[in-house]
């Protein structure tokens, strides 16, 4: 993975290409800075987009995403994240489940600690999925997740709790 570090950030662009026997990942952007020390890390991404297509014996996956900017800070099992406008589409089928989603988000902030995750944002996520022992359904950012993960959202804000 090619990452723009603070030393060469002024060059302003990165392109990642990752290909293995199960698929291809391509992404590009204007800026990506990541710093880590021990279990503490921070990451900021500038305008970027990416796609991933995987076809293997375990299943098939398609993912496309574009975002203005995002940033995150991680300390052990605690993670905070902020996002500006973004849009993505995904379709996946594997031994772990299946899902199809379209996501559009104006802005959000989220925090997770261990099994609990809370998010405050405005989105129009729409889709259905069965994955990792949970069923999820959303229409215009409002929906529910039941199973291994319990959660609900209204207009893009909500919470999730991972039971195990």
Structure explained in plain terms:
This protein has one domain (9-162). It contains no helices and 16 strands. The two termini are 32 Å apart. It has 164 residues and is mostly beta strands. Helix content is 0%, strand content 73%.
Counting helices, strands and paired strands, the structural category is mainly beta
Question: What distance separates the N and C termini?
Answer: 32 Å
The domain count comes to 1
**Estimated radius of gyration:** 17 Å
* H-E string: EEEEEEEEEEEEEEEE
Question: Quick check: average pLDDT?
Answer: 85
What kind of sheet is the major sheet? 7 strands, antiparallel, barrel
Number of DSSP strand runs: 16
**Strand order, biggest sheet?**
10-11-16-15-14-13-12
- Binned, the helix content reads under 10%
Low-confidence stretches: 1-12
What's the structural blueprint in terms of helices and strands?
Elements: E1 14-20, E2 23-29, E3 32-37, E4 40-45, E5 48-56, E6 59-67, E7 70-75, E8 78-83, E9 86-94, E10 97-113, E11 116-123, E12 126-131, E13 134-139, E14 142-147, E15 149-154, E16 157-162
Antiparallel strand pairs: 1-2, 2-5, 3-4, 4-7, 5-6, 6-9, 7-8, 8-10, 9-10, 10-11, 10-12, 11-16, 12-13, 13-14, 14-15, 15-16
């Amino acid at each position: 993975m090619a990452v723009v570090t603070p030393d060469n950030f002024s060059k302003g662009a990165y392109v990642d290409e990752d290909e293995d026997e199960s698929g291809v990942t391509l992404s590009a952007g204007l800026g990506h800075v990541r710093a880590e020390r021990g279990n503490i890390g921070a990451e900021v991404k500038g305008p970027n987009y990416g796609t991933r297509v995987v076809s293997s014996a375990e299943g098939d996956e398609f993912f496309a995403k574009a975002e203005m900017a995002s940033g995150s800070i991680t300390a052990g099992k605690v993670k905070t994240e902020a996002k500006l406008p973004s849009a993505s589409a995904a379709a996946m089928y594997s031994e772990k489940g299946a899902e199809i989603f379209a996501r559009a988000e104006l802005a959000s902030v989220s925090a997770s600690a261990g099994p609990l995750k809370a998010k405050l944002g405005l989105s129009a996520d729409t889709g259905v999925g069965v994955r990792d022992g949970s069923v999820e359904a959303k229409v215009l950012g409002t929906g529910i997740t039941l199973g291994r993960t319990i959660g609900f959202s209204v207009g893009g804000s909500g919470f999730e709790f991972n039971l195990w």
